[in-house]
Specification:
Blueprint (H helix, E strand, L loop, with lengths): L11 E5 L15 E8 L4 H15 L3 E8 L4 H10 L6 E5 L3 H6 L35 E6 L1 E6 H7 L10 H14 L9 E5 L2 H8 L17 H12 L16 H6 L3 E7 L2 H8 L5 E4 L10 E9 L5 H14 L2 H10 L3 E2 L2 H9 L9 H9 L1 E2 L6 H16 L7 H20 L1
Parallel strand pairs: 2-3, 2-4, 7-8, 10-12
Antiparallel strand pairs: 1-3, 4-10, 5-10, 5-11, 6-8, 6-9
């Protein structure tokens, strides 16, 4: 799950009692209770309270028990409950885990929801929550994706044009190198050209590569597109401060905030971080650059439903989900800075009517249309971690690993896990 400012809290349960509104529920005068579980983060807690309270005002026949669990070990707690047959009725997950959850037989197929009351074409992130057969295992709650943040002060000092949607990684390299040349100074005060969160995965996708084959059971990391992506990562090394993070301000966020980094690929949620921590920073955002395409990945934070629900409780949960993905609540999500709305109309209206920093919020609408989901399967977390370990060796201090060796090592590590799982 892609969320900034994670705060680990003690497990608390907030029960929102249905009031005396003139609202309605799907089950007449009988009260149906739903348990809704979410992780404890600074943006999610107040957001979910607002959503639950607005639902209660309209549905006096349904009682929502909002359970806020510590972020640390959140997924593991839910797995333990599933084993003990005490799962909540509906819960919040990182969308990359959707196939992991569906493979356990723990969550309901929600395809029917999008064949009736909801239209899949109205929402971003739908396909990332489907399996290979097209079954819909989750409903998108919000979208987290990338933008290219740039420091206008640094660009102005070097007389370099600001990034726009036409930029490629060749432009990133050329202008990043020029910025570093124009701002030669001591090692401690060096200004860097570019870095990015999840640089290698996005380079692979932008170059037309894939992590897995069409069936999701074999690695595709031995493709030439993957080798080329590693080669691009190596080419960008001279303008990338990744080896200076711990020696300077601690990380790329701090480098950008303190005018030491010209361009930074990061999630949408970084907008809230910048506006809170550095209200005077002169920055803007552009779409991410292209290699062959602009195929950066997105993550759909999702809602999943307990497979064992039936009758009044199932009807009540579906009413609650429709409430969450409605226009008004999707705008609540946008205003919370938790992520971008999955409801397309809400996302468009929010980004079009934005006032303040950054000015070019429309860059995120371009990214919403051009980003792609990550390849996932039921052991996504395991094989993706193995890939990242190889990437860390590739980036390591004094590493002599070639792009060909990195792609081959990634392929072997990931394929070993897939063979153990699917053979």
């Amino acid at each position: 799950m892609s969320i900034v400012n994670r705060v680990i809290l003690s497990s608390i349960i907030i029960v929102v009692v249905a009031g005396c509104s003139s609202g309605h529920g799907p089950i007449g005068s009988k009260i149906t209770t739903i348990k809704y579980s979410v992780p404890s983060t600074t943006t999610l807690i107040p957001l979910h309270k607002e959503i639950v309270e607005s639902f209660q005002r309209q549905h006096s026949g349904i009682h929502i028990e909002l359970e806020i669990l510590p972020w640390s070990g959140y997924n593991e707690r839910l797995v333990t409950r599933m084993v003990g047959d005490t799962s909540p009725d509906v819960w919040f997950i990182d969308g990359t885990q959707i196939i992991e959850w569906s493979s356990r037989g723990a969550i309901a197929d929600l395809s029917g929801l999008f064949n009736g009351d909801l239209q899949s074409d109205d929402y971003y992130g739908i396909k990332s929550l489907q399996d290979k057969a097209g079954r819909q295992w989750g409903v998108p709650f919000s979208i987290q994706l990338f933008g290219l943040y740039y420091n206008k002060k640094i660009f102005d000092q070097s007389g370099v044009p600001y990034p726009d949607e036409s930029w490629t990684y060749e432009d990133i390299y050329r202008y990043g190198e020029r910025i570093m040349t124009d701002n030669k100074t001591s090692e401690r005060d060096k200004i860097y050209g570019f870095t990015s969160v999840a640089m290698l995965p996005n380079l692979i996708l932008s170059n037309g590569g894939h992590f897995l084959d069409e069936n999701g059971t074999n690695s595709s990391l031995n493709q030439k597109e993957v080798v080329e992506a590693f080669a691009w990562a190596r080419k960008l090394e001279p303008i990338n401060p990744f080896r200076a993070f711990t020696q300077t301000f601690g990380g790329p966020d701090e480098l950008f905030i303190y005018n030491r980094l010209a361009m930074y690929g990061n999630y949408y949620a970084f907008v809230a971080t910048l506006n809170e921590k550095s209200p005077d920073l002169d920055y803007d955002v552009a779409p991410m650059p292209k290699l062959k395409w602009r195929n950066c990945y997105y993550v759909a934070n999702a809602l999943v439903v307990n497979r064992k629900l039936s009758g009044d409780k199932k009807i009540a949960v579906m009413e609650f989900i429709k409430h969450i993905v409605s226009y008004d609540n999707q705008m609540r999500i946008a205003m919370s800075n938790e992520g971008l709305p999955c409801y397309k109309k809400a996302a468009h209206d929010f980004l079009s009517n934005w006032e303040g920093r950054p000015v070019n919020m429309k860059a995120f609408e371009i990214m919403l249309k051009e980003s792609v989901p990550l390849d996932t399967n039921k052991v996504f977390r395991e094989w993706f971690s193995a890939f990242c370990q190889v990437a860390d060796k590739f980036w390591g201090e004094g590493s002599k690993m070639t792009p060909e060796e990195a792609a081959s090592a990634s392929h072997i590590e990931v394929q070993t896990i897939l063979d153990r799982t699917f053979r």
